[in-house]
Amino acid sequence: MNSTYFNRRTIRKYESRDIDENLLDRLLTAGTRTSTTGNMQVYSIIVTRDREMKRMLAPAHFNQPMVMEAPVVLTFCADFNRFNKWCRQRQADPGYDNFLSFMTAAIDALLAAQTICNAAEEEGLGICYLGTATYNADKIIEVLDLPKGVVPVATVTLGWPAVIPDQPDRLPLEAVVHYERYRDFTPGMIDDLYREKEARSDSQQFISENNKTTLAQVFTDVRYKKGDNEYFSAKYLEVIRNQGFLSH
Amino acid sequence: MNSTYFNRRTIRKYESRDIDENLLDRLLTAGTRTSTTGNMQVYSIIVTRDREMKRMLAPAHFNQPMVMEAPVVLTFCADFNRFNKWCRQRQADPGYDNFLSFMTAAIDALLAAQTICNAAEEEGLGICYLGTATYNADKIIEVLDLPKGVVPVATVTLGWPAVIPDQPDRLPLEAVVHYERYRDFTPGMIDDLYREKEARSDSQQFISENNKTTLAQVFTDVRYKKGDNEYFSAKYLEVIRNQGFLSH
User: Quick one: which of A79, A246, A182 has its CA closest to B53?
Assistant: First the structure.
């Protein structure tokens, strides 16, 4: 298989040159060939190239510079709006105002997103997922005019790499893969799986820069804090409800 | 980019030959190179190859024959269990028992799943997503011994194609892609976007076989019914709660 799968890194610095219309179209078309529940295609992709639209989107992504610097920003949404409209226009009563349907649509959106990322990387483009799509879905809905039935689940910035960073570490395969049954982790296994990551010089730097004593504390106390997670959880659930997916 | 992106179809009939261990390892490794929030890798993949395990999993997938016939079944899970254990072992207080963290972990799992599917298809393998992973997550948890912090989000069957079906239709690109702002659909646009799909002979056959008057009714009244969706919504939310993701 293509070596890109193994050599990839997330790209956060892009050249100023644009992505050719035709290439973008092929990427989007590849995305639409991805598996979709019952061939319903209950997702949508909002393409942002306009500078003023990027400026309006940027705060929702905490002004991460990739939003302004990437030639293309893609917002992937769980979307039952089109499908519901079709049903109503065809004497069919849609029953998709519930959490399962949100998940179905979110899965459709995320699988299409990842196909587009894989295909883009194969073409030499660089991508970066912005987790802020779920944090500030309400603002994104406002800026992109998303109607009821549509919820952002992922944002990807896309462009030609200007800086290719070192490839990040990953845990050993056995941290992620289980055979036949989940083999839960003993303290000794956790130590083994995280030993190499914890020993890295960049991990040590994270710890000292943040005045922490362990790498895990950098995650819990600085990067992904309980209070923030709870705040954004409530906000995202509210968005899902407002967009019509928690009526039952 | 690779033509597989454009020519792919979901494969439901597999040859009996197995998938080489080495190839499966490369696919899983490719999967772990996929983007993951903050490099936390908060997902897991359960590999099922054992016949008896497949037999136990099958009812959770409504006994769809792919589960028994595919040499490999992959269950992709949102997984904060390993990460939480690491935090607790390193004097860090994890705050991931909330809905946002579930979504973060589900996104990690789904992106890895799709990379594996794309890489597998490039190698000539065929894949099929089973939506039943969210329907019957409770049964899957039981069979695979999934601990708290772990929730199935997708199941993929994987094998060498025995029958390659016709490529399914997709809606025109403009049904899915919006530029700059969401352009909501007028009744005329809905008619245009669905015209070709509705005119297909297989669509006509679906309608008559199910004694319906429109294709949309086949979805709402037969395939993805309101009552079922609501039943499985409540069940999946309960699973997410039981696995510790709705404590806040």
Answer: A182
pLDDT at B1 (0 to 100): 87
A99-122 and B226-242 helices, crossing angle to 10° = 80
pLDDT digits (tens, 9 = 90+) for A55-97: 999 999 999 999 999 999 999 999 999 999 999 999 999 999 9
pLDDT tens digit sequence for B152-195 = 999 999 999 999 999 999 999 999 999 999 999 999 999 999 99
* B176/A41 Cβ within 8 A: yes
Residue B149 has pLDDT above 90, yes or no: yes
The phi and psi torsions of B39 (rounded to 5 degrees) equal 55, 35
pLDDT at B117: 98
Q: What angle do CA B243, B247, B248 make, to 5 degrees?
A: 145
The domain B4-166+232-242 having CATH identifier 3.40.109.10: the answer here is: yes
| Predicted ipTM beyond 0.90 | yes
Cβ contact, residue pair A233, B225, below 8 Å: no
Count contacts between A and B (CB, < 8 Å): 350
Q: A143 with A25: CB under 8 angstroms? A: no
Distance from CA of B210 to the nearest CA of A (A): 14
The Cα–Cα gap between B32 and B174 comes to 32
CATH number of A4-166: 3.40.109.10
Long-range contacts of B166-170 (CB under 8 A, 24+ apart): B166/B9, B167/B7, B167/B8, B167/B9, B168/A39, B168/B9, B168/B10, B169/A39, B169/B196, B169/B197, B169/B200, B170/A32, B170/A33, B170/A39, B170/A41
CA distance B106 to A27: 24
Give the dihedral of Cα atoms B4, A80, A139, B111; nearest 10 deg: -30
Chain A residues in contact with B232 by the CB 8 A cut-off are 100
What residue in B sits closest to A229 (Cα-Cα)?
B100
Q: Give the gap in angstroms from C-alpha B83 to the nearest C-alpha of chain A.
A: 9
Task: Name residues of chain A where pLDDT drops below 70.
Answer: none
Task: State how far residue B208 is from chain A, nearest Cα, in angstroms.
Answer: 15
- Give the residue range(s) of CATH 3.40.109.10 domains in chain B: 4-166+232-242
Q: Which residues of A touch B76 (CB under 8 A)?
A: none
